[in-house]
Design a protein that fits this description.
This protein is an all-beta fold. It has no helices and 34 strands. The chain has one domain: Methylamine Dehydrogenase, Chain H (7 Propeller), CATH 2.130.10. It is globular, with a radius of gyration of 20 Å.
């Protein structure tokens, strides 16, 4: 395994010939991006989907097997025990994908801040990783390094692992949530945390759900969007203000086919494929051309039509219906997929893009995901796993650790 702390040593214009220099004696690897095209090795192929957490990532192979990589201090990779060590504190990690224990054949996967959940092809739900706030839906453990079945008598069609709570949609359309109940995140009319999954207080039926830090939103069968938990109401003196929504309320916005919730903000895709965002916006992550937060859904500053959209902690990314990837928001760690934005946002003057910026590399994607950290991963139309951004815990899956990776790099093939 090539885990090492690396830095970009040379960039040559738009050709972007990057040389990785590492702190320990190991052969440097040249990453060449000639004419903005990325050469993808065959070893990076074979993926169908991906989810990005705080400092880890998980992907589903074409044969439905599940693999994870990155930080594993809380067991969020589901591999039993990580072999590597990352960062100043030398915490457990894996710099390349490893198959999740139990040979789960996954239909979907969701990586949260420090825990992960997946639904297998039969509809059974599994969770693993950090359980300090009861976000795994199982009793008696503070962490779980391998998958545990949640509500084995039920079957699910959607799951979302949030910051410290989890929500899932059953096959009958009801939403269950569990874990940290602060600010009404569980949608049950109170702020009480729950060890075991409990149904959300609504008679609506849903097709999908997205859990953020203390807010969740779900798309109903009639395409309306319903949200509960921490609702952004403004900012003052550099601080973001929220108020509690203890039960689901209908969002005053367009009918939608998808929604993605993060820490301060949320984004969705309307039925006409236009994207919108709302909430806090200190890094330009709403993509509306400013840093002004907005409490109601506002269309992103572009006429692009979106196939997928993912809201992250300080950045958002999306894929157009023809496979082009765009990102916007904070770019301090290269998570926008471009070398430098030339723009600054917020009181700290951090690198940013206030409107969608095309990801470099000339690749076409089926999906791109970001989450509770500062990295992004996507699966190309040719089934390659490509990641970019912060890699201090090996979360890009290419076997290296470094502080900034501005352009997509291919993940290594998974191992047991």
């Amino acid at each position: 395994m090539r885990l090492a702390r690396c830095r970009a040593a040379a960039w040559m214009g738009l050709a972007l010939v990057g040389l990785l220099a590492c702190d320990r004696p190991t052969a440097p690897v040249a990453l060449v991006y000639a004419d903005r095209d990325v050469a993808v090795p065959a070893s990076a192929l074979g993926w169908r989907d991906v989810s990005v957490g705080g400092s880890h990532s998980c992907g589903i192979r074409l044969d439905a097997l599940l693999a994870c990589w990155g930080a594993d201090a809380s067991g969020q990779l589901g591999v039993g025990a990580a072999a590597g060590r990352c960062g100043v504190r030398r915490l457990p990690c894996e710099g390349s994908p490893r198959f999740v224990a139990g040979a789960i054949h996954a239909a979907s996967v969701s990586a949260g801040d420090r825990h992960t959940c997946a639904i297998d092809t039969s509809g059974a739900l599994y969770c693993w990783g950090d359980n300090s706030q009861f976000q795994l839906g199982v009793e008696g453990v503070s962490t779980r390094p391998t998958p545990a079945v949640v509500l084995p008598e039920m079957r699910f069609v959607s799951v979302s692992a949030g910051g410290s709570h989890t929500c899932a949609v059953r096959t009958n359309g009801t939403v269950y949530c569990w874990g940290d109940g602060r600010l009404g995140a569980l949608g049950r009319g109170d702020t009480v945390s729950s060890v075991l999954p409990r149904p959300v207080a609504t008679t609506q039926r849903f097709s999908r759900v997205s859990a953020g830090t203390w807010q969740s939103c779900a798309v109903a069968l009639d395409a309306s969007v319903w949200c509960w938990g921490a609702e952004w109401e403004g900012s003052e003196g550099g601080l973001e203000r929220f108020h509690e929504r203890l039960v689901p309320h209908r969002l005053d916005g367009p009918l939608s086919r998808d929604v993605s919730v993060s820490v301060l903000d949320a984004c969705g895709i309307a039925l006409d494929d236009l994207g919108y965002c709302f909430g806090g916006n200190p890094h330009g992550q709403l993509g509306i051309g400013s840093e002004e937060g907005i409490g109601v859904p506002t269309f992103i500053a572009t006429t692009e039509r979106w196939a997928h959209l993912s809201a992250g902690i300080v950045q958002s990314c999306a894929v157009t219906i023809d496979g082009r990837a765009f990102c916007w928001g904070n770019g301090s760690f290269g998570q926008l997929g471009i070398p430098r934005t030339g723009d600054r946002c917020g009181p700290g003057g951090l690198e940013c893009a206030r409107e969608p910026a095309p990801v470099f590399g000339g690749l076409r994607f089926s999906t791109v995901k970001t989450g509770f950290g500062n990295h992004v991963c996507g699966v190309t139309l040719a089934s390659a796993m490509m990641c970019w951004g912060l890699a201090s815990n090996g979360q890009l899956g290419d076997g290296w650790t470094r502080d900034r990776q501005s352009l997509p790099v291919p993940a290594l093939p998974p191992r047991s």
